[in-house]
Amino acid sequence: MAKAQKSNGQAKAGSGATTGQRQAMWDKFAGKAEKNWKKAREAKAGGGNFETPDIEDGTYTARCTKAVCAFSKGNKDNPPTPYVNFSFIVVGGEYAGTKLNRSDWLTGTNAQGEDNSEDRMSYLSRVLQGFGYDVSESSFKDIPGVIEEIASHRPYVEIATVTKQGSGKNSSKKYLTIYVNKPLTDEEAADLDIDDDDDPEEGSEVEEDSDVEEEAKTKTAKKKTAKKKAIKKVGRR
């Protein structure tokens, strides 16, 4: 991955920024986002966003192959917007190998031009709960660390796909909503009958910051270990 570039003293906003730069931007944004996150974290597991359907509606076992939080590039009229992206691959069954993607944009407005950032954050809250995390006492600033942990562990989860009809100018289109229902237990994951072609090699699709020095990574890891996480991993379901 190319080294993150700086412009006018600003760190690059997209996913090419280093882990430390993304966390710094996230923390800076958190001041105005915290109020919405405190309400959003009360949402129950579920959620969804859209992409072109290529799978039947149903419940599937999948592996999260990539998880990253970043910011849109933004411009003088529109500041950078935080988002989280997840990639999944279905394992086992008729649709084994099918790749799915879900993106959660955490700020924005609805069709009436009203701010709906709280609703958008509630979708992410449901997803994190679906991965098995307790977000009840969490802060907006905790999100990047949890996303990094998901990217590192690449967990197996149960997902659900639901096809929905578009509305307005997109009424002729159909969209696929991806829900994260629950994490698989270690025993369930060990019992999966997976062909090598169904499951990507370790690390093949995990977001990595190759431009971050190993020493910096080690210091960050030690710091995270010493700090008690506000977003706790709940017991496996």
| Distance between the amino and carboxyl termini | 36 Å
Q: What structural class is derived from the secondary structure elements?
A: alpha+beta
Unreliable spans: 1-14, 46-50, 201-229
> Percent of residues in beta strands?
15-25%
Strands, total number: 9
Total domain count? 1
Strand arrangement, major sheet:
5-4-3-7-8
Order of helices and strands: EEHEEEHEHEEHHE
Helix content: 25-40%
Radius of gyration: 18 Å
Structure in words:
This protein is of the alpha+beta class and about 240 residues long. The chain has one domain. Helix content is about 25%, strand content about 25%. The strands form three sheets. The protein has a five-stranded antiparallel sheet with strand order 5-4-3-7-8. A two-stranded antiparallel sheet has the order 1-2. The chain has a two-stranded antiparallel ribbon with strand order 6-9. The relative contact order is 0.20.
Summarize the structure.
The protein has one domain.
